Amino acid sequence: MLCKVLALLLFAACVCAYEDCGSKDGSIVSVTISNCSNDKKCILKRNTNASIEIGFTTNDDSDVLTAVVHGVVLGVPFPFNLPNPDGCKDSGVSCPISAGQTYNYKTSLPVLASYPRVTVDVKWELQDKDGNDVVCVLIPSQIK
Fold first, then answer.
1. What is the 8-class DSSP label of residue 127?
2. CA–CA separation, 107 and 133 (whole Å)
3. How many Cβ atoms from other residues are within 10 Å of residue 81's Cβ?
4. Secondary structure class of 9 (helix, strand, coil)
5. Does residue 58 sit in helix, strand or coil?
6. pTM of the full predicted structure?
């Protein structure tokens, strides 16, 4: 029974391919995206929500944590509007965040039906009170 549950969890969410795109005030521990079964490129289905979890450690204290998300197509960033950009609210992270601590940020990204079917790098930044990237994650993706 335990093996079946673990197998189901592996298919529901997996650690995806990602790269650090300039984490300045922290470091990435892990990145997990729901229904992302490809280890090279995450497939985001239109008209669904993709859940994302970013484990990170911060180097500085901050009262604020703001999520900023862009889709980067051919080097051009296009903003993704998040329903809740406040990284301290309903995300599993309680602010203030403290230097040396590890946090698990969780939220969902609506993949709207109006988004074009395109290969895109999702650039997810968690910024501190000064607008510096605590972490910056670049996730190779494709919208289908």
1. E
2. 18
3. 9
4. helix
5. strand
6. 0.84
